[in-house]
Alpha-galactosidase
Amino acid sequence: MHCSIFVAALLALPVIQALVQNDGVGRLPALGWNSWNAYHCDVNATKILAAANYVVNLGLKDAGYQYVNIDDCWEVQSGRDPTTGELLPDPTTFPDGISGVADEVHALGLKLGLYGSAGTETCAGYPAEIGHESLDASTFAAWGVDYWKYDNCNVPSNWTDQYDFCVPDQSGSLPNGTCPVTDMTAPVGYDWSTSNTAKRYDIMRDALLAQNRTILYSLCCWGDADVVSWGNNTANSWRMSGDIQPNWASVASIMNENSFWLGYVDFWGHNDADMLEIGNGDLTIEENRSHFAFWAAMKSPLIIGTDLSVLPADHVDILKNPYLLAFSQDEVFGAPAMPYKWGTNPDWTFNSTNPAEYWSGESTRGTLVLALNTLDEAADRQITWSEVPSLSAVGNSFHVIDIWTGEDLGCISDGITKSVGVHDTIGYLVGDSC
Ligand SMILES: *[C@@H]1O[C@H](CO)[C@@H](O)[C@H](O)[C@H]1NC(C)=O
Ligand SMILES: *[C@@H]1O[C@H](CO)[C@@H](O)[C@H](O)[C@H]1NC(C)=O
Ligand SMILES: *[C@@H]1O[C@H](CO)[C@@H](O)[C@H](O)[C@H]1NC(C)=O
Ligand SMILES: *[C@@H]1O[C@H](CO)[C@@H](O)[C@H](O)[C@H]1NC(C)=O
Ligand SMILES: *[C@@H]1O[C@H](CO)[C@@H](O)[C@H](O)[C@H]1NC(C)=O
Ligand SMILES: *[C@@H]1O[C@H](CO)[C@@H](O)[C@H](O)[C@H]1NC(C)=O
Ligand SMILES: *[C@@H]1O[C@H](CO)[C@H](O)[C@H](O)[C@H]1NC(C)=O
């Protein structure tokens, strides 16, 4: 078990191949829809194509959403084709196979995503990729797949990592991602890009890159194995936390965790804060709005996860917010917005219920400034230009647009103070000085 670091390093010899694709795929956070949060395992071609049509008809495609992703449970569960060894789409739920769905999705001007796991079975227990990476990648390319989400379930015992890594939002872990010290604790300075987890994901990267088809690589190892430190050499995006749930506690907890890891985000590689829950569970409209604002500001992939046929218009409008989408998709500024002040808690406090409240980030159209109320009662939030890093040296009066209403607020001096509802966010695009 505890083979020496020397041996582990020899086995690794990583070939560094950043996922820079010729046609720009993966340079910006992916925008799309995925079946899981809406349908879980109860998925079929009809639902996927209905979602694709809603992406077009609700104007989401025009707003930039591109991918329509099939999550778990699309396969024949009992096994692979006995002759070819290939994975088999379920003939009942996907009667025209994955390629049939891909053709129809492509005909709408959209792209198709598919799902598997770097283990023996997917999370729902369907055949998965480990040991079959090359064959499966060529199958996906032949089917016309454009996006590959690669989960982390059912890892064989001989692929377990040598050391423990604790994701900070899991019980028992420390805020810096280390576990309480045991004999499974990694030595100081351990290079997690040599871990078995990294190797499992690198094998699939190489298999995807070997195909004559551009396939965006969405790595999903739940923040394990310090993925933020090596993800950019392996994939276009990497999940930095456990699964999101449709409630505010989960949204706030992921935001808090990611707020400490945003230095790993830039063009070509993005921390994935997990799929959007807008439209699901018991989020209030304010919470739906804050969830979207911060996922866009953190430059997470924005993957809608709800039944679009019943999504209320005010939620569709949140998903189409032009200011936030422009920030997410900025061609010139790759870095995300980051906290400049924590607010309720002292700066740099790691706190899952009350994350940083004051954030800013630069973009082509100006500085995006957000202020969140993490409290369970309405409270004033005071944005002061002199505290915002990209504004403080420039001046004290700026041209401001409200990102929720689109209202041009004109020239504003000093800053903005406003009462903010429970878990709501105020947001401004702060432009030229005036
Ligand atoms: C998919 O499920 C829906 C709802 O249950 C059903 O109406 C439709 O016929 C199903 N389509 C396929 C291809 O199984
Ligand atoms: C685990 O076992 C499989 C099958 O024997 C082998 O191909 C793979 O290389 C092993 N993994 C590691 C990390 O040794
Ligand atoms: C993580 O934090 C704990 C307690 O706050 C500390 O004892 C430990 O040294 C830290 N580990 C690293 C790698 O910084
Ligand atoms: C790769 O795909 C392109 C476009 O489909 C095709 O024109 C080209 O011949 C293919 N190249 C190889 C080596 O198969
Ligand atoms: C990720 O890799 C790309 C491509 O090499 C690079 O442009 C980008 O700056 C890297 N991201 C970070 C945070 O270093
Ligand atoms: C998180 O911050 C809130 C507000 O300051 C505080 O009441 C709570 O005790 C903190 N939680 C933890 C676990 O420290
Ligand atoms: C936010 O998301 C979902 C869905 O509609 C919730 O159930 C909640 O109702 C939404 N917020 C609203 C409408 O306030």
Summary: Residues 212 surround 2-acetamido-2-deoxy-beta-D-glucopyranose (ligand 4) (CB under 6 Å).
